[in-house]
Amino acid sequence: MTAGGLARRGFGDASRAVRLMGECGLDAARHAAVVDALGAAPDPDQALLGLVRLLETGSEAAELLEALTADPDLRARLAGVLGASVALTDHLVRHPGDWRELRGADAARTPTAEELRAGLLHIVGADPHAAAPVAAPECDDPEGPEHALRVAYHRRVLRLAGRDLTGAADLETVGAELADLAAAVLEAALAIARSRAPAEAALCRLAVIGMGKCGGRELNYVSDVDVVFVAEPAEGVEDDQAAQRAAARLAAEMMRIPAETDSEGTLWQVDAALRPEGRNGPLVRPLSGHVAYYQRWAKTWEFQALLKARPVAGDPELGAAYLAEIEPLVWKAASRPNFVDDVQAMRRRVVAHIPAAEAEREIKLGRGGLRDIEFSVQLLQLVHGRSDPALRSGNTLEALAALSGGGYVGREDAGGLADAYRFLRRVEHLLQLSRLRRTHLLPDPAGADGPDQLRRLGRALGFTANPVTDLMAAWRRVAGEVRRLHEKLFYRPLLHAVARLPDSEARLTLEQAGERLSALGFADSAGALRHLEALTSGLSRRAAIQRTLLPVMLEWFADAPDPDAGLLGFRQVSEALGGTPWYLRLLRDDVRVAERMAWLLGTSRYVTELLLRAPESVAVLADDADLAARPVAALMAEADAALRRHDSAENAVAAVRALRRRELLRTAVADLLDVAPVDAVGEALTDISAVTIEAALRAASDVVAAQRGEELCTRLCVVAMGRFGGRELSYASDADVLFVHEPLPGADPVAATETAGALVRELRRLLEMPAVDPPLRLDADLRPEGKSGAMVRTLDSYAAYYRRWSSPWESQALLRAFPIAGDPGVGARFTALVDPLRYPEGGVDERAVREIRTLKARMEAERLPRGADPALHTKLGRGGLSDVEWVAQLLQLRHAARVPALRTTGTLKALDAAVDHGLLDPDDGAVLETAWRLAARVRGAVMLVRGRPSDSVPTSLRDQTTLAGALGYREEDDEGPAGQLLQDYRQATRRARAVMERVFYDD
What we know:
Layout: H1 3-8, H2 14-24, H3 32-39, H4 44-55, H5 61-70, H6 72-84, H7 86-94, H8 105-108, H9 113-123, H10 145-165, H11 171-196, H12 198-203, E1 204-210, H13 212-215, E2 225-233, H14 240-259, E3 270-271, E4 284-285, H15 287-296, H16 300-306, E5 310-314, H17 316-330, H18 339-352, H19 370-384, H20 396-405, H21 411-435, H22 450-460, H23 467-490, H24 493-500, H25 510-520, H26 525-536, H27 541-559, H28 563-577, H29 581-589, H30 591-601, H31 605-613, H32 624-627, H33 632-645, H34 649-672, H35 678-708, E6 714-720, H36 722-725, E7 735-743, H37 749-768, E8 778-779, E9 792-794, H38 795-805, H39 808-814, E10 818-822, H40 824-838, H41 846-862, H42 881-895, H43 907-916, H44 922-946, H45 957-966, H46 976-1000
Helix pairs in contact: 2-4, 3-6, 4-6, 4-7, 6-10, 9-11, 10-11, 11-14, 15-17, 18-19, 19-20, 19-23, 20-21, 21-23, 22-23, 25-26, 26-28, 27-28, 27-29, 27-30, 28-30, 28-31, 29-30, 31-34, 33-34, 33-35, 34-35, 35-37, 39-40, 42-43, 42-46, 43-44, 44-46, 45-46
């Protein structure tokens, strides 16, 4: 075969390959299949050199070549081993006949743990069926039983590598077999130790507990084997201390054997540093000593390590007893103070201690490496596993599958972590196979041998086109995905919440729930129990996630003013969303959403009703940015799209009203969560109402035009009044408006007015038609002549009326006039018309001031509802909204003509302008603003809490407590939440009333 042909097969030094093949008798034609197998190896040049070394060992060369030619499985296994591992090649050269370990049925079969144990015990001459196997005094191997054990171990590793490198064994099989093989070595080493110290062996029972990857049956090719020793006196031995000393000597001898070096090299170190007190503690302890230590002194990381504890050698009954005593302590560890924080801090410390030069190549400890996956899985196990035995596995992939199956981790996230784990462990195995040395570092691309090592690694992983480039790209991609998922799962706030629950409450059962519900403050524990049963019963993934969430959420429902309403609302929303996949995933992965949802549903009937009408809106709870009021332009664009999307005006306006419902929910949630101040709430409610009216007016215009069969002969403008014009709407406010129209040039005035009337009627019909969405009622009572006057007037009619009949109260009302929908030109001309009335030159005269004051006094006397407490009526009560607003409006009527800053429709802006221009004392302005904000908040909160409007602070203690909770008052307040709210409200309004009487009445 030519050098070019070999180069095409992947050989790096093709000329050298041609020479080597000639020297060893490898014929290109006769042994083409062998050459092809070598070319497919991770490193073809290394594989060829290894084969040449084997063939040079002597008499078996012809048999080996013949076997390779005839047996494709042998070819693939041997080429893979030779091309991936210099260390196993060296073993084959030392033991030329061991290539047969890769041939036949046994080479393809996965041995059992017992088979491995019996085989290695047989090697050292011990009886595998004995209760405490002892190695034979004599050994067939002239170099002794330790050497025989190492040779046998490497033969087993060789056989496993052959299956691994050809894809016949997956990662889980490889890790489990290596762990079982390590356990067998420990058993054989202990048998040797017993043979050399029979007196000590007679004094004690010794169990070897595997920890780390050995305990989890996911061992690497080369890794320290972590162990813990537990010992008890043998039957009939009364001297406990002598038994412990004997066990310590046996344990030390056992540890020495795998770690010694001879012509076979070193197998691995046995590391007992995970024992109680670490390297400073005694090597061996009795069972009671272990239990006492873990009960009193163990740190958080020690329980994390114990998660993988498994008896692997020595006395099986003692090992089982150890596990039975220790396991309950492990699964209670998450209840320790700061448990989650401790685990997270430990992971950060590990990352911080990685040398900077190695951080980007560290596949085990570095960011995005194996430790990120393992710590994430272990933390989730320890937190949730105390109440769910299905999670109690020491094996990472098994535990990850159980976490996914139980709904603790999303399927996609679990699949991503599992794939990444397999990739990283595969890389780790291939790195270690090369020289059977412990390493977790990717080769340095800038190092002398780095590119060659990376090329071999990449080819072994299947990257044959561009091995180095593709390998590094895959590593960066996997590390980035692992880091993303690690941050998501490892720092999941739900872990803190679940860890804080008492052990008995971590996973709620219906038997336990009744008592707890009453203790948490649920008034109807039987009803709440029915809700819990409906949410958590069954075997579905949804029920599994609910069983995890609800024990925590019950605490949050209990923190809300009405826990029973909260749980009922949660059940209703959950059932409405049905099998929607993102809903429970959102609650599980973003605990803030679940906490907020519990509190909102237990606080606000208004929010609950809106959520039930659009349960998908729960997604806005995830991010404060989603709770910010949307720009008017964005709302208008969405409303425009709804108008275009629907054929009928009814359906189009229904879609716009659904948009309003969603924005009402967004605003209410932002209000209750204190994300938006009260003035921002008013502006948001005003904007969505204005957009809704504008869209409905356009739809109404199309309907009226279609009915009349012609274009409309007039232009209509909707002018906002009252709180609507002041951009201070509340949840229960009607939209106070005036309807102004202006006939088109040449149009018949009567026909134009008739058309405008039809347009207004259609507009109101569309806005108030029955639907699940809150209606938007238009109130035109502030029009000229009030309810007895025409609903809609021309601009000229308004001008004539105001010229002849306008009274001071109308000038005052017009301070809030602001065009919000319809023809902007008509709105601008209406504004120009009313500006002289509301901002009169020279200010209002004293007669008008007296009339305004008289009207205010009459309102207080006549319009305050019968039986209402004037001190607690937010609108008309002493120091309430009306007091503050009338002060601001009187200042505007008096001074706005000469102070342009006062020409605003907003109360707070008017007060600020008055302060800025010396018309109102700053302290008085602050008092008025405080009272207005508090009264507006209380008024809005009453609607949010009760789901129906009221202008008065509730009189019942229960309702006052609920209201106070919605406003952020908590039980720790000295007066109690209701008492503190009433105290604050009375104090603020009393001060505001004093300012009002002094400023408004010149008193």
